[in-house]
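Standup notes
- DV: blocked on the single-chain target, sequence here:
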Amino acid sequence: MSAIIEVELRGPLDAELRGRSCTAAKFHDLLIDRGAQLKGREKRLLLDLSTDPIESRALDVRVRSINGRSEIVVKRGGISQSAREEARVCLADHQLHQAVRLCAMLGYSTAVACDRRRIKYQLDDLEIVVEEVRYFSQPDKLHSSFFEAELIATEETKVQAEARVRERLDQLGLPIFERSEFNAYVHKLNQEANFIYRVGQDPESMLDGFQAESRV
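- DV (later): unblocked, structure below
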């Protein structure tokens, strides 16, 4: 079986992040005007368990909860790379705490906890997602927004897939983060919006709001 390669490019949706960016509302109007279909909305918890610095990271280990459904995800490659191999295991509902405990037993005992609301669109073969970054300690408060545009490829087709994504975003007039820009943005989120969750020290109840089914 061929490895699954996630080809993904990102760009800002807040003027202060980059001068050429557009707002999330204008982004929605742009996609709908170009024929995109609204696929749905997600409430997502991302627990980034990786320990290496962002700039030199070669492996991402994550626990995610998406509308109450938990999964363990591993991505091979730097966080700002455009093409990364991905493997995931989907768990039974309400298994978030078990997934976190399992990863802690494997040595991943500290996580960067990220609270996101996601709006998903389909534009031809391209999935485009608006990522609304919430303050983990104040989930009703929006920090900033960015978009992701994704195609699934194989090792043999990833170069062509990336070219396809870049071409489509260029046609839409959307700016793309440079790797250094996205790394800097992730650092900003970690300092201002995300939360360092320590397994066994911080109460599990902090994650309970992501276990129940929610379609925000």
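- Follow-up: The chain has a mean pLDDT of 91.
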